[in-house]
Design a protein that fits this description.
With 268 residues, the protein is mostly helical. 72% of the residues lie in helices and 0% in strands.
Length: 268
């Protein structure tokens, strides 16, 4: 297998890092880029696995206090837990992760087919924009996360297995509409991304193992792609926290709709 050059790998890593946490769909952007520019499609699953691991590491680093407190290495009174108990985060994370696991395992063929369809990606981005605009219905949520709200957010995340549907857009907007305060909404969304990303990475790794290609991950260009995705992803996590507090969240809808129009036109 011929890997992309470092410049191309870094470029795709930057796309992944920017779009993974901003509500504009990383899967939609990567899929569209590789459909529109077939020369960039050669990295395939190896590049997707590398960049997803980069963004997962960004989440773990950014919210390291929360992660350390949840696994018991910091006291339960640590402010990183945002006023919730350790067991609450475990329970909410578990029930919130189950829907996307079920959808991801049962709809693999449908999801895989959607990745090569610009019309589907465009329509999915338009749907994402509509969901983001709906966040204006609850501009200043002030409630706490609970089990019912965690289930609702998890169901919203399950739709994001399809390219063009933003995972952060679905989960954070669902949390806002359920009256979860911005700090908990964004943090829980990011917490849910860890098992979602590692689950997708595990499926990719199994595919590579079946093809006897796990060793292809050990290349300099993929290392740079992982680093690029992680670094820009870390910055974008902070940006998402700021935007969700300032009432700008719904404005990403305009970008999604513009991208949707361009992709639907390109699909003709």
């Amino acid at each position: 297998m011929i890997h992309p050059g470092i410049a191309v790998a870094v470029f795709l890593g930057l796309i992944q890092g920017i779009t993974e946490f901003l509500p504009i769909s990383s899967s939609g952007h990567l899929a569209a880029v590789q459909v529109l520019f077939p020369s960039l499609a050669s990295p395939g699953v190896t590049l997707e696995l590398a960049t997803h691991l980069g963004t997962a590491m960004a989440v773990l680093l950014y919210h390291r206090r929360l992660v350390l407190a949840v696994i018991g290495l910091l006291p339960e009174s640590d402010p990183g837990l945002l006023g919730l108990g350790r067991l609450q985060w475990w329970h909410y994370g578990l029930v919130g992760s189950l829907p996307i696991a079920a959808v991801g395992l049962t709809a693999q063929e449908t999801v895989r087919a959607a990745f090569g369809d610009l019309l589907w990606i465009g329509l999915a981005l338009a749907f994402t924009g509509a969901v983001l605009m709906a966040s204006r219905l609850r501009p200043h949520p002030d409630g706490d996360l609970n089990l019912r709200r965690a289930v609702l957010i998890g169901l919203a995340q399950s739709v994001a297995v399809f390219p063009g549907v933003s995972r952060s857009g679905m989960t954070i907007t669902a949390a806002m509409l359920a009256n979860v305060r911005a700090s908990q909404a964004v943090t829980f969304s990011l917490l849910l991304s860890i098992p979602a990303i590692f689950g997708a990475a595990l499926l990719d790794a199994v595919q590579l193992f079946a093809q006897h290609r796990l060793a292809t991950l050990l290349s300099i260009d993929l290392a740079f792609a992982t680093l690029a995705a992680g670094l820009i992803g870390y910055y974008c996590i902070g940006l998402v926290h700021r935007v969700s507090r300032t009432g700008w969240w719904h404005r990403f809808a305009w970008y999604c709709w513009l991208a949707a129009i361009l992709l639907i036109q390109a699909a003709r």
